[in-house]
Every structure is written in C-alpha cells, then in structure tokens.
Amino acid sequence: MKIIPSRLALSLLAATIAIPAFAQNVVTVNGTAIPQARADVMISEQKSQGAPDSEQLRNAVKEELVRREVLSQEARKKGFEKSAAVQAQVELARQAVLIRAYLQDFVKSHPVTDGEVKSEYDKIKSQLGDKEYKARHILVEKEDEAKAIIAKLEKGEKFEELAKQSKDPGSKDKGGDLGWANPASFVKPFSEALTKLEKGKITTTPVKTDFGYHVIKLEDSRALKAPGFDEVKGQIKQRLEQQRVERHIAELRSKATVK
Fold first, then answer.
1. I need a surface site. Which of 99, 136, 160, 208 has the fewest CB within 10 A?
2. Per-residue pLDDT averaged across 107-127, rounded?
3. CB 214 within 8 A of CB 139
4. Who contacts 139 (Cβ-Cβ below 8 Å, separation ≥6)?
5. Cα(216)–Cα(46) distance, integer angstroms
C-alpha cells in the first residue's frame, strides 16, 4: 500500500531541508542574504593578524558585513556598478584576490625546506665575515675633488667639516658617519679599501665606485657576532619563498604571448 505523507510531515521535511541553506547565511539585509563564507573569510583574516576568535569578533564582523551591504546597496541604487571606472577597479580587485590565492597555493606546493634555509644561512654567514667596521666617508663627483680633500686632511683639517661637501645626503650632515656596518653592505671597491685601513687612518688615494669618488676614514672595528640560526630562520625562509615566487612569475612572463 502506498503511504501518502501528511501535510504536517511534508512541512517538517521542507523545514529540515531548508535548515542547511539558512545556516549558510550570516544575516539578511533588506532582503539580501550575506553568505557565511564571507564572514568566515573576514574572521580568518582577523585571526591571522592575532585577533582571538570570540563572540565579540564574530559580532564585529557581522556588523561590518551589514554596513558594507547597506552601502553597496545604496551605491547600486546610484548606478555606480555601471561606471566603467568602478568596473575596472572591481576587476583589479578580483585579479588581486585570484593572484593571492594562486601564489599562496604555489608557496604551499613548492615549500622551502629546512635544509635550504640552513644552507642560505651558512652562505650569508660566510659572506659577512667576522668583523664589522665604523667608518666615515666623503663622496664627490670628480677625482680631483677627492684628491684636494685628502690634501686638506693631511694638513690637519677636520674630516667632519669637509664632509659637509659630500654628495651623500645620508651622511654629510653627520660628519660622513656611516655607523657600524659589515663590509658586505658596501660596494666592492669601497669595502676592499675600508678593510685595508688601520684604525684612525684615511685612504691616501680616492676610491672610485659607481657613485663617484670616496675618501674613507676607518674609525674602529670589532668582532662581528652573527645572529643564531633560530633567530633568523623565519626571515630567511620568507626571503627564499619570495625569491622562488619571483622566479616563477618571471618564468610565466617569459612564456606569455604578448602582442
């Protein structure tokens, strides 16, 4: 015998089926449902920035979504969604979201190994050497200018005063002071001349680099204590990931047909 469900049973069945769909929306604004997925994304972003998952956070996200929906509804009433400039911005935003998702997946599927991070750390550490130097310099455009400065220094004029004519805006007002730095942070001709100097001495000939001609004074040197691996491994990993992403982008760009 065929059993015909009662109207009550059908109503309960319909309500049961409708519950999951209703649960997928966080709120309805002027008849427009805001999907829970949108709230989940915002909550996830806040948590990634250190915010604890709480009822307060979820209420704040809900209120933000309501405000956004109210404003976007008003914008649509004004016809802004039909504006070519607005559509272009929307497309750029859509591309940015897609690109971020793609690159996050790329980094996840092409992980930087602990071995690669340690190898890069050892490489950087060897390049840094075991000393750092406190130096001053005067940068000028022409070799004759540098020679004239060296001559004045040899006659007893003060380095700090002569540094005022330096072309280096970052150090000229500080008497040419470059602070403590590792030689690897300077261009090669500069670092080679610096490391050959004795404490308190000045280069007797101008040092030529792509920036011009330098007169260098070594004020002091000290042993360099490199940071431990655990202190910097996170930074190194992030840099290696970025380099890998940049190479991937360059590879994709080189294969693209652009007319």
1. 99
2. 93
3. yes
4. 166, 167, 168, 211, 212, 213, 214
5. 50
pLDDT in tens, 169-203: 999 999 999 999 989 889 999 999 999 999 999 99
Strand 207-209 relative to strand 177-181: parallel, antiparallel, unpaired?
unpaired
How far apart, in Å, are the Cα atoms of 151 and each of 160, 192, 212? 15, 22, 18
Q: Could you tell me what percent of the chain has a pLDDT over 70?
A: 91
| Cα–Cα distance for residue pair 166/176, rounded to 1 Å | 8
CATH architecture assignment, domain 131-223: Roll (3.10)
What is the reported pLDDT for 129?
78
Q: Which two tokens stand for residue 141?
A: 């455009």
Angstrom distance (rounded) from CA 87 to CA 72? 14
User: Which part of the chain has CATH 3.10.50.40?
Assistant: 131-223
| Residue range 30-35: mean pLDDT, rounded | 94
Residue 132: φ, ψ to 5°: -130, 155
**pTM, two decimal places:** 0.64
The answer to whether 121 touches 232, Cβ cutoff 8 Å, is yes
pLDDT at 10: 39
Given its phi and psi angles, is residue 111 left (phi above 0), alpha (psi -120 to 50 degrees) or beta?
Answer: beta
CB-CB contact of 176 with 136 (8 Å): yes
State the DSSP code for 112. Answer: P
Q: Is 172 helix (H, G, I), strand (E, B) or coil?
A: helix
What stretches of the chain show up as alpha helix (H) in DSSP? 7-23, 36-48, 55-77, 84-109, 114-128, 143-154, 159-162, 188-196, 229-255
